[in-house]
Amino acid sequence: MSPFSATNWSEPEDGFSTTFYEKYTSQLWFPEEIPLSNDALVWKSLSDDERWTYIHASAGLNALDTLQGEVGMPALRSLIDGHIRKATLQFQGVMEDIHARSYSLMNKTFLSTSEEREVFEWVRTQPQLQFKISFIQGVFADPDVSNLGLWKKLAVSCMLETALFYSGFFYPLYMAGQGRMVSAGEIFNLIILDEALHGVYVALLAQEKFGLMNPAEQAYARAWYAQTLQTLYQNELAYTDVLYAGVNLIGEVKRFIRFNCNVLADNLALERPFPDKEINPVVQNGIEARGTTHDFFSAKGSSYSKVRVETLSDADVEAIWAGGFPDLNVSNQVVRVSHD
Amino acid sequence: MQLVYDSLTGNVRRFAEDLARQLGGPPALAMREAQHLPGDYLLLTYTFGTGGVPASTQAFLQQHAARLRGVVSSGSFHWGQNFARAADVIAGQYGVPVVAKINKAGSAANRVQVLEWIGERRA
Ligand SMILES: Cc1cc2nc3c(=O)[nH]c(=O)nc-3n(C[C@H](O)[C@H](O)[C@H](O)COP(=O)(O)O)c2cc1C
Ligand SMILES: [Fe+2]
Ligand SMILES: [Fe+2]
Questions:
Q1: Is A203 in contact with A158 (CB distance < 8 Å)?
Q2: pLDDT category, B122, cuts 50, 70, 90?
Q3: Pocket of ligand 1 (CB under 6 A)
Q4: How far is the CA of A94 from the centre of ligand 2 (A)?
Q5: Domain count within chain B
Q6: Greatest CA separation found in chain B?
Q7: Per-residue three-class SS string for A79-93
Q8: What ipTM describes this predicted complex?
């Protein structure tokens, strides 16, 4: 067994992991920082069908983020070499947990307890959603950890990040593009940007594994990819039929899924599977909505209010400890407090 | 018109190589290999940070601004208002036109757009 080493950030393992790690930590956000109170009023003005699609789309995404945070990222982290790479993947996992929590907080804000229970039960029994999850879990659990086996795991993770989330993302973007549910829309946009980076990072690792395969393995990998994508794409179409029937957007959602499958192919350096089509202008509007008044990353969204950090001065420290080093003055402090 | 590209994950490289193939002229040059540029060139790069120009592209432009004739930038649609903004930044800084903004590795329509621009300059 080789000796255990420490993480050396001065000697990068590759040309990109540190960049991604730094980007993740600098754009870290928490759902509590985006107040949903304005949306709570809008929520009541939506039709039953609109509410149904919105909340079930979010609940499905919650399940997929839970999958990525709990199964996907730990699996990849344990199989990919390099301390910095592992740290980066672990951080991605934390981000997935934050995403899942965001969806849950939305439920809590907009739904009654019994409605919440119904939605979570729906997730447990929705056939297309469960198929997607178990299919991907199967790939993560596959004991094959050859370059090809690892590539498959990285590739399905990218499929989630870059394509299979978009049946769910469509509706909140579409709403935000019309100026409805804009605070929740902001949370979705923060999540979408996180996922855009995850999709690029994991795809870079995948491209590296792909490059290590021999031509026969690469040909096999391409064929496996085409077939897997086809299976999951057909499943997305069926899921879309269920999720969007009440709001008459099925065709638009399917077009958006295909668009994102092409982005996925670009990330993995594979052929785009679908003809190029424009994004629905309302959805495009929803994506751009956040940038109208703010620089997205320094403000992290238009109603974002993260606590500012200020450097402590000596005066602050003196005020806090009232003139003594705490460990040495425990008894003094206790006495003082009891006299106050 | 020489094509010079900067690329981190391969999208811009694939787009530039595709154009070079269709033009049938010299191959597209990766920025690292483009230290001695005899003539005019079209720069193809990507967007990084927050609507920013990659450091490698910035450094290159400081050396080679004189023969820059136009800029193409890749980005991804997720960035909304900052989509492919590197092209705007470079166009503003060096007074050259934005020839195209492409999502990731670009579409067939993007390739036509760039090829037409190059064609017009030849005529
Ligand atoms: C850390 C990081 C930041 C990015 N920032 C932006 C951005 O602000 N705007 C944008 O349109 N694309 C942004 N992108 C997306 C890239 O520009 C896009 O994926 C591009 O196709 C990369 O080109 P390449 O594959 O040739 O490296 C960013 C990507 C990364 C990894
Ligand atoms: Fe996520
Ligand atoms: Fe993710």
A1: yes
A2: confident
A3: A 19, 23, 197, 200; B 7-13, 46-51, 74-76, 79, 82-85, 104
A4: 9
A5: 1
A6: 38
A7: HCCCHHHHHHHHHHH
A8: 0.95
